Amino acid sequence: MKLKFNEGKFKILLFGDIHENHDYKTSLNFKDMQKLMNAALDEFKPDLCVLLGDNCNTGKYEENPEAFKEMVSDLVKPITSRGIPVASVLGNHEHDHGHEDEVVAVYGSIDGVIMRNDTPAEVTGNANFKELIYSSDGEKPVFCLWFIDSNNCHEDRNVSHYDFVHTDQIEWFEAESAKLKELNGGKPMPSFVFQHTPVPEEYELLRKAKLWEIPVSVKGYNSHSGTRYVGKKGVEGYVGEGPCSPDVNNGQFASWKKVGGVLGAFFGHDHLNDFSGFHDGIFMAQHKTAGFRAYTDGCRSCVRLVTIDEKNPEKFTHQLKRFKEFGLKCECLGPIFKRFSDRQSFYMHLFANIGMGVAGVAAVGFIIKKLIEHFGG
């Protein structure tokens, strides 16, 4: 299928970490996820949807390949039934049970779904590919979407818990980017990158928490676990957990800078985070789950719409919208968790931490005063 701008705009709707399971046909979790998907599709009318990995439990493939295909088909049916194409990356859990090549083939066999592997067999990963977006008249490719397999866990957990994008994948990206540059008249073609696991540079969007910010900070992941973090000034969205990036920086972000043209990168993997911001000229956005299966954040499951302007792609826009902001009624969560607002949850977290970890009325008063100053009440 050929992607192209529609009257000068191209809209991409992102869904993170749905984690659908074998019992989906009778599951309220699945029902609520599809409410979010349908509401977002009706409101935003995207030109493409992207699933950011960990979509469906691949254990079902080994047991019953046809049932697995049916689950994937039913997952994306709200999208494909509207005639909207959907692309997907592999998440770490799609590697858990093996059969990655077969799983990729299942996705690619479903009408309207884009997933394949463009790299030679000797290159790491099972689904590295790119899609071009053509001009509104359909004549010229003007934008590139990269879909990269960020692999599973590292073979040596003493080196890194999660694996990283390997050197041979980066070399493939650079070689293909050179071809696109030539196609684009000697200028790097504007592009986005989509992959499941975030790059280590995501920590550049965060800073070490000050003492009085500890109650609302998050503990860094693995090699960053000795530090607590909050978002830097200018970073938008919710920092709910330390980014679970690899402990080894294999130079993927540096490659984006070297090649040029990469305007933004979008990641799944961290179910609570939906923060975003710029580092060294590249926009990075983290996506919390769009489902209710794995660990979640109440009714804050969300989607993100990214809109590219054909004439000025560097000025792309993005909009985050959560389940409860669509006015949807959640059936799978209990009466307490589905009613908490972000602010209520924030203060509950705050006072719980103060009660457990801070002694003295003066200290409590000081922390509350500082937090009100910092977060605006």
Sheet-strand content, in percent, reads: 15-25%
CATH fold-type name of the largest domain: Purple Acid Phosphatase, chain A, domain 2
Which consecutive residue ranges, at least 5 long each, have pLDDT under 50? none
Helix content: 25-40%
Number of helical regions: 8
CATH level-1 class of the largest domain: Alpha Beta
Whole-number tally of structural domains: 2
Please state the overall shape, judged from the principal axes of the Cα atoms. globular
- What is the succession of H and E elements? EEHEHHEHEEEHEEEEHEEEEEHH
Number of strands: 16
Going by helix content, strand content and strand pairing, the class is alpha/beta
Question: C-alpha Rg, in Å?
Answer: 21 Å
Looking at how many chains there are and whether they match, the oligomeric state comes to single chain
Describe the sheet with the most strands: 7 strands, mixed
Tell me which CATH architecture of the largest domain applies here: 4-Layer Sandwich
The end-to-end distance, rounded to whole angstroms, is 49 Å
Strand order of the largest sheet: 1-6-7-8-12-14-13
In CATH, the homologous superfamily of the largest domain goes by the name: Metallo-dependent phosphatases
Averaged pLDDT, please? 90
Topology:
Layout: E1 3-4, E2 9-15, H1 28-44, E3 48-51, H2 59-63, H3 65-80, E4 86-88, H4 100-109, E5 113-114, E6 129-134, E7 141-148, H5 167-183, E8 191-195, E9 206-208, E10 218-219, E11 228-231, H6 252-259, E12 262-267, E13 276-279, E14 282-286, E15 302-309, E16 317-322, H7 342-357, H8 361-375
Parallel strand pairs: 1-6, 2-3, 3-4, 4-5, 7-8, 8-12, 12-14
Antiparallel strand pairs: 2-15, 6-7, 9-11, 10-11, 13-14, 15-16
